[in-house]
Protein backbone atom coordinates (compact mmCIF):
# COMPACT_ATOMS: atom_id res chain seq x y z
CA UNK A 1 0.00 0.00 0.00
CA UNK A 2 1.67 3.27 -1.07
CA UNK A 3 2.23 5.84 1.66
CA UNK A 4 4.64 8.65 2.49
CA UNK A 5 7.32 7.85 5.04
CA UNK A 6 8.50 10.60 7.41
CA UNK A 7 12.26 11.15 7.92
CA UNK A 8 12.34 9.40 11.30
CA UNK A 9 11.79 6.02 9.61
CA UNK A 10 15.39 6.16 8.32
CA UNK A 11 16.62 5.89 11.92
CA UNK A 12 17.18 2.46 13.51
CA UNK A 13 14.19 0.57 14.92
CA UNK A 14 15.17 0.47 18.58
CA UNK A 15 12.63 -2.29 19.35
CA UNK A 16 13.55 -4.68 16.54
CA UNK A 17 13.97 -8.31 17.60
CA UNK A 18 17.17 -8.55 15.55
CA UNK A 19 18.56 -5.69 17.68
CA UNK A 20 17.74 -7.46 20.95
CA UNK A 21 14.21 -6.17 21.48
CA UNK A 22 11.69 -8.30 23.37
CA UNK A 23 7.95 -8.25 24.05
CA UNK A 24 8.23 -9.10 27.71
CA UNK A 25 4.53 -9.18 28.61
CA UNK A 26 1.03 -8.56 27.23
CA UNK A 27 -2.44 -8.36 28.72
CA UNK A 28 -3.66 -10.99 26.25
CA UNK A 29 -2.52 -12.85 23.14
CA UNK A 30 -5.38 -15.26 22.61
CA UNK A 31 -5.44 -15.15 18.81
CA UNK A 32 -1.88 -14.26 17.78
CA UNK A 33 1.41 -14.08 19.66
CA UNK A 34 2.82 -10.85 21.04
CA UNK A 35 6.35 -11.62 19.78
CA UNK A 36 5.25 -10.88 16.20
CA UNK A 37 5.07 -7.15 16.99
CA UNK A 38 8.83 -6.65 16.65
CA UNK A 39 9.75 -9.19 13.97
CA UNK A 40 11.90 -7.94 11.08
CA UNK A 41 10.30 -7.48 7.68
CA UNK A 42 6.83 -6.81 6.38
CA UNK A 43 3.94 -8.83 7.85
CA UNK A 44 2.83 -11.80 5.76
CA UNK A 45 -0.65 -13.19 5.22
CA UNK A 46 -2.29 -16.20 3.61
CA UNK A 47 -6.05 -16.09 3.28
CA UNK A 48 -8.19 -18.91 4.65
CA UNK A 49 -5.36 -20.34 6.75
CA UNK A 50 -6.99 -21.44 9.97
CA UNK A 51 -5.55 -22.92 13.13
CA UNK A 52 -7.16 -23.92 16.40
CA UNK A 53 -7.62 -20.25 17.30
CA UNK A 54 -8.97 -19.07 13.93
CA UNK A 55 -7.33 -17.24 11.01
CA UNK A 56 -3.54 -17.22 11.37
CA UNK A 57 -2.09 -13.68 11.53
CA UNK A 58 1.51 -12.47 11.42
CA UNK A 59 0.93 -10.04 14.27
CA UNK A 60 -0.40 -9.66 17.81
CA UNK A 61 -4.14 -10.16 18.31
CA UNK A 62 -6.17 -10.17 21.52
CA UNK A 63 -9.58 -11.71 22.14
CA UNK A 64 -12.81 -9.69 21.99
CA UNK A 65 -12.90 -7.76 25.25
CA UNK A 66 -16.19 -8.11 27.14
CA UNK A 67 -15.19 -6.07 30.20
CA UNK A 68 -14.02 -2.46 30.70
CA UNK A 69 -10.39 -1.56 30.03
CA UNK A 70 -7.94 -2.06 27.17
CA UNK A 71 -5.15 -4.38 26.06
CA UNK A 72 -1.44 -3.62 26.14
CA UNK A 73 2.00 -5.02 25.32
CA UNK A 74 5.30 -4.23 27.08
CA UNK A 75 8.38 -4.00 24.83
CA UNK A 76 11.99 -3.85 25.99
CA UNK A 77 14.03 -1.83 23.51
CA UNK A 78 17.03 -3.76 22.25
CA UNK A 79 18.75 -0.40 21.76
CA UNK A 80 17.83 2.15 24.46
CA UNK A 81 17.70 5.69 23.18
CA UNK A 82 15.78 8.82 22.25
CA UNK A 83 12.60 7.94 20.37
CA UNK A 84 11.94 10.09 17.29
CA UNK A 85 8.90 8.30 15.89
CA UNK A 86 6.60 5.30 16.21
CA UNK A 87 4.92 3.23 13.49
CA UNK A 88 1.82 1.20 14.36
CA UNK A 89 1.08 -1.17 11.47
CA UNK A 90 -2.30 -2.91 11.26
CA UNK A 91 -1.41 -4.77 8.05
CA UNK A 92 -3.98 -7.48 7.18
CA UNK A 93 -6.14 -6.66 10.21
CA UNK A 94 -9.27 -5.36 8.47
CA UNK A 95 -12.25 -6.30 10.63
CA UNK A 96 -10.37 -6.85 13.86
CA UNK A 97 -7.99 -3.87 14.21
CA UNK A 98 -8.11 -1.60 17.30
CA UNK A 99 -9.99 1.66 16.64
CA UNK A 100 -7.52 3.58 18.84
CA UNK A 101 -4.01 3.20 20.24
CA UNK A 102 -1.51 5.08 22.40
CA UNK A 103 2.15 4.56 23.33
CA UNK A 104 3.98 5.16 26.60
CA UNK A 105 7.69 4.97 27.42
CA UNK A 106 9.76 4.34 30.54
CA UNK A 107 13.41 4.39 31.59
CA UNK A 108 14.13 1.42 33.86
CA UNK A 109 17.76 0.40 34.16
CA UNK A 110 19.05 -3.06 34.91
CA UNK A 111 16.99 -6.16 34.22
CA UNK A 112 13.46 -5.44 35.48
CA UNK A 113 10.71 -8.04 35.67
CA UNK A 114 7.31 -7.40 34.02
CA UNK A 115 5.84 -6.59 37.46
CA UNK A 116 8.57 -4.03 38.13
CA UNK A 117 7.97 -2.47 34.72
CA UNK A 118 4.24 -2.16 35.30
CA UNK A 119 4.95 -0.39 38.59
CA UNK A 120 7.43 2.05 37.01
CA UNK A 121 6.53 5.63 36.04
CA UNK A 122 5.42 5.87 32.40
CA UNK A 123 5.34 8.88 30.06
CA UNK A 124 2.87 9.15 27.19
CA UNK A 125 4.80 9.75 23.95
CA UNK A 126 1.95 9.05 21.50
CA UNK A 127 -1.45 10.26 22.74
CA UNK A 128 -4.51 8.15 22.01
CA UNK A 129 -5.10 8.30 18.26
CA UNK A 130 -7.46 6.72 15.77
CA UNK A 131 -6.32 3.77 13.67
CA UNK A 132 -7.44 2.33 10.34
CA UNK A 133 -7.38 -1.28 9.27
CA UNK A 134 -4.59 -2.67 7.08
CA UNK A 135 -2.53 0.54 7.27
CA UNK A 136 0.72 1.98 8.61
CA UNK A 137 0.28 4.86 11.07
CA UNK A 138 3.24 7.20 11.64
CA UNK A 139 3.55 9.24 14.83
CA UNK A 140 6.39 11.71 15.37
CA UNK A 141 7.76 11.94 18.93
CA UNK A 142 9.31 15.16 20.29
CA UNK A 143 10.29 13.93 23.77
CA UNK A 144 14.09 14.24 24.23
CA UNK A 145 14.33 11.74 27.11
CA UNK A 146 16.22 8.45 26.91
CA UNK A 147 13.98 5.39 27.25
CA UNK A 148 14.53 1.65 27.69
CA UNK A 149 10.95 0.31 27.33
CA UNK A 150 7.68 1.18 25.58
CA UNK A 151 4.09 0.10 26.19
CA UNK A 152 1.66 -0.18 23.30
CA UNK A 153 -1.95 0.34 24.42
CA UNK A 154 -4.79 -0.68 22.10
CA UNK A 155 -8.31 0.53 22.83
CA UNK A 156 -10.13 -1.70 23.53
CA UNK A 157 -8.78 -4.83 21.78
CA UNK A 158 -7.85 -6.23 18.37
CA UNK A 159 -4.77 -6.89 16.27
CA UNK A 160 -1.56 -5.02 15.41
CA UNK A 161 0.94 -6.53 12.99
CA UNK A 162 4.08 -4.53 13.79
CA UNK A 163 5.33 -1.87 16.18
CA UNK A 164 8.34 0.13 15.02
CA UNK A 165 10.15 2.46 17.44
CA UNK A 166 12.61 4.59 15.47
CA UNK A 167 15.20 6.70 17.23
CA UNK A 168 18.76 7.53 18.16
CA UNK A 169 20.72 4.99 20.19
CA UNK A 170 21.91 6.22 23.60
CA UNK A 171 23.84 3.38 25.27
CA UNK A 172 25.44 3.37 28.70
CA UNK A 173 29.10 3.26 27.66
CA UNK A 174 30.31 3.53 31.26
CA UNK A 175 30.22 -0.29 31.22
CA UNK A 176 33.28 -0.13 28.95
CA UNK A 177 35.42 2.15 31.13
CA UNK A 178 38.97 0.89 30.75
CA UNK A 179 37.92 -1.71 28.17
CA UNK A 180 37.93 -1.85 24.38
CA UNK A 181 34.68 -1.87 22.41
CA UNK A 182 33.36 -1.87 18.85
CA UNK A 183 33.35 1.84 18.06
CA UNK A 184 31.31 1.20 14.90
CA UNK A 185 28.50 -0.80 16.54
CA UNK A 186 24.97 0.52 16.28
CA UNK A 187 24.30 -0.80 19.79
CA UNK A 188 27.11 1.41 21.10
CA UNK A 189 25.72 4.55 19.48
CA UNK A 190 27.43 4.53 16.08
CA UNK A 191 25.43 5.53 13.00
CA UNK A 192 25.94 5.62 9.22
CA UNK A 193 25.57 9.32 8.41
CA UNK A 194 26.25 9.27 4.64
CA UNK A 195 26.23 6.70 1.86
CA UNK A 196 26.83 6.84 -1.88
CA UNK A 197 24.32 4.12 -2.80
CA UNK A 198 21.79 1.96 -0.93
CA UNK A 199 19.89 0.44 -3.84
CA UNK A 200 19.43 -3.07 -2.43
CA UNK A 201 19.70 -2.67 1.33
CA UNK A 202 20.21 -0.10 4.06
CA UNK A 203 23.77 0.97 4.97
CA UNK A 204 23.09 0.86 8.73
CA UNK A 205 22.88 -2.92 8.32
CA UNK A 206 26.68 -3.10 8.30
CA UNK A 207 26.85 -1.94 11.92
CA UNK A 208 23.83 -3.90 13.19
CA UNK A 209 24.17 -6.46 16.00
CA UNK A 210 24.75 -10.12 15.21
CA UNK A 211 25.64 -11.86 11.98
CA UNK A 212 24.03 -11.23 8.60
CA UNK A 213 22.02 -14.34 7.72
CA UNK A 214 21.74 -13.43 4.02
CA UNK A 215 22.58 -10.64 1.57
CA UNK A 216 19.62 -8.45 2.49
CA UNK A 217 20.89 -8.17 6.08
CA UNK A 218 24.05 -6.43 4.89
CA UNK A 219 24.62 -3.35 2.71
CA UNK A 220 24.55 -3.83 -1.06
CA UNK A 221 24.80 -1.23 -3.83
CA UNK A 222 23.60 -1.27 -7.42
CA UNK A 223 26.09 -2.22 -10.13
CA UNK A 224 28.24 0.85 -10.77
CA UNK A 225 28.50 1.74 -14.48
CA UNK A 226 30.48 4.99 -14.17
CA UNK A 227 34.01 5.75 -12.92
CA UNK A 228 34.62 5.96 -9.18
CA UNK A 229 33.57 3.80 -6.27
CA UNK A 230 30.90 3.46 -3.59
CA UNK A 231 31.36 4.47 0.06
CA UNK A 232 29.72 5.14 3.40
CA UNK A 233 30.62 7.20 6.49
CA UNK A 234 30.24 5.83 10.02
CA UNK A 235 29.95 8.21 12.97
CA UNK A 236 31.68 6.33 15.76
CA UNK A 237 30.25 5.72 19.22
CA UNK A 238 32.65 8.42 20.36
CA UNK A 239 36.04 9.88 19.54
CA UNK A 240 38.38 6.95 19.75
CA UNK A 241 41.51 5.11 18.72
CA UNK A 242 40.88 2.11 16.44
CA UNK A 243 43.20 -0.89 16.70
CA UNK A 244 41.38 -3.62 14.76
CA UNK A 245 39.11 -3.49 11.70
CA UNK A 246 36.87 -6.39 10.70
CA UNK A 247 35.45 -6.25 7.16
CA UNK A 248 32.94 -9.03 6.62
CA UNK A 249 31.75 -10.12 3.15
CA UNK A 250 29.83 -13.17 4.42
CA UNK A 251 27.00 -14.24 2.03
CA UNK A 252 28.37 -12.01 -0.76
CA UNK A 253 29.59 -14.61 -3.22
CA UNK A 254 29.49 -12.85 -6.59
CA UNK A 255 28.91 -9.26 -5.50
CA UNK A 256 31.63 -8.67 -2.91
CA UNK A 257 33.82 -5.60 -3.52
CA UNK A 258 37.20 -6.16 -5.06
CA UNK A 259 38.90 -4.01 -2.43
CA UNK A 260 38.32 -1.73 0.56
CA UNK A 261 40.03 1.24 2.20
CA UNK A 262 39.40 3.03 5.51
CA UNK A 263 39.88 6.74 6.17
CA UNK A 264 39.58 8.28 9.62
CA UNK A 265 37.96 11.70 9.95
CA UNK A 266 38.36 14.15 12.82
CA UNK A 267 36.96 17.56 11.95
CA UNK A 268 38.73 18.65 8.77
CA UNK A 269 41.57 16.20 9.32
CA UNK A 270 41.77 12.96 7.29
CA UNK A 271 43.90 9.98 8.24
CA UNK A 272 44.55 6.83 6.21
CA UNK A 273 43.71 3.91 8.49
CA UNK A 274 43.80 1.12 5.91
CA UNK A 275 45.12 1.59 2.36
CA UNK A 276 43.25 0.04 -0.54
CA UNK A 277 43.33 -3.68 0.27
CA UNK A 278 42.03 -6.71 -1.65
CA UNK A 279 38.94 -8.53 -0.37
CA UNK A 280 37.68 -12.07 -0.87
CA UNK A 281 34.03 -13.11 -1.23
CA UNK A 282 32.17 -14.66 1.72
CA UNK A 283 35.03 -13.96 4.14
CA UNK A 284 35.60 -12.25 7.48
CA UNK A 285 38.75 -10.13 7.05
CA UNK A 286 40.70 -8.80 10.05
CA UNK A 287 43.24 -5.99 9.80
CA UNK A 288 45.36 -4.57 12.63
CA UNK A 289 45.59 -0.79 12.34
CA UNK A 290 48.71 1.08 13.46
CA UNK A 291 48.10 4.76 14.18
CA UNK A 292 48.06 7.05 17.21
CA UNK A 293 45.44 9.62 16.20
CA UNK A 294 41.85 9.38 17.50
CA UNK A 295 39.00 9.97 15.05
CA UNK A 296 35.25 10.60 15.24
CA UNK A 297 34.16 9.17 11.86
CA UNK A 298 35.42 6.55 9.41
CA UNK A 299 34.79 6.52 5.66
CA UNK A 300 34.61 3.01 4.23
CA UNK A 301 35.37 2.95 0.49
CA UNK A 302 34.59 -0.18 -1.53
CA UNK A 303 35.97 -0.68 -5.03
CA UNK A 304 34.15 -0.36 -7.28
CA UNK A 305 30.79 -1.50 -5.85
CA UNK A 306 29.11 -4.50 -4.21
CA UNK A 307 28.27 -5.10 -0.60
CA UNK A 308 29.45 -5.69 2.94
CA UNK A 309 27.80 -7.83 5.59
CA UNK A 310 29.34 -6.12 8.63
CA UNK A 311 32.01 -3.60 9.59
CA UNK A 312 33.51 -3.74 13.10
CA UNK A 313 36.06 -1.18 14.32
CA UNK A 314 37.47 -2.20 17.69
CA UNK A 315 39.29 0.30 19.87
CA UNK A 316 39.18 2.58 22.89
CA UNK A 317 37.21 5.75 23.56
CA UNK A 318 39.34 8.81 24.26
Keyword list:
318 residues; mainly beta; Jelly Rolls; 2 domains; allantoicase activity; hydrolase
What report would you give on this structure?
It is an enzyme of class 3 (hydrolase). One of its GO terms (biological process) is allantoin catabolic process. This is Probable allantoicase. With 318 residues, this protein is mostly beta strands. 2% of the residues lie in helices and 44% in strands. It folds into 2 domains: 163 residues, Jelly Rolls, CATH 2.60.120; 143 residues, Galactose-binding domain-like (Jelly Rolls). Strands 12, 13, 15, 16, 17, 18, 19 and 21 form an 8-stranded antiparallel beta sheet that branches. Strand 16 and strand 17 form a beta hairpin. The radius of gyration is 21 Å and the shape is globular.
What's a quick, concise take on this entry?
By secondary structure, the chain is mainly β. The chain contains 1 helix and 21 strands.
Globular, elongated, flat, extended or rod-shaped: what is the shape?
Answer: globular
Low-confidence stretches: none
The tally of strands reads: 21
Fourth CATH level, the homologous superfamily of the largest domain: Galactose-binding domain-like
Radius of gyration based on Cα positions: 21 Å
Individual helix count: 1
Cα distance, first to last residue?
47 Å
Structural class: mainly beta
Q: SSE order in H/E notation?
A: EEEEEEHEEEEEEEEEEEEEEE
Major sheet details? 8 strands, antiparallel
EC number: 3.5.3.4
Keywords: Hydrolase, Purine metabolism
Organism: Nonomuraea cypriaca
Family: Belongs to the allantoicase family.
